[in-house]
Design brief:
Largest sheet: none
Helix content: 55-70%
Oligomer: single chain
Order of helices and strands: HHHHHHHH
Amino acid sequence: MSAYTVSHLAHDAGVSVHVVRDYLLANLDGLWHYFTEKWLRLAHLDSDSNKSRWPTHPLWEVISNASWGDATQPALQRIRSSNLPTDDRLFTAGLGYVAVFMGREGTTNLSKGFRSFMNQADTFHRLRGESTARYVERKARVKGRLFSTINNRIHLDRVEALRQTEAYRKAREGEE
């Protein structure tokens, strides 16, 4: 794919080519692992008729373990837009759960039922040690990564910085 093609694709998507470049550079490690683990592989010839069972060449192990960034990212996966949930499925199933809750609680008023649903969800999650907002954010990050729609790199960098800060504090104070 030429730079000209990337430029036109970025323009068609309504984003700057610089945004595309920055995204690719920020995710280079994940792209590399996708290309060298999921998409392409160098294998030793073997008598097995199933090529997927052929042993990976040792040189390929070295090549595929190359790192292109400071933090290791999981291998990216190809996601086709056909795998994204449809509006029909989302809004039918999602509201279906709210309707089940409303039926259980004996109300048909959507505003009252949804407010009650959220209040009870908040109580439920707080008893488990997590706010509803944090639970939903965590789940959305997982799905966003799966659908390639949310860049979790910023969040991961913040979490790693907090982890390193805590490790430094413990080392300084002599804790294990």
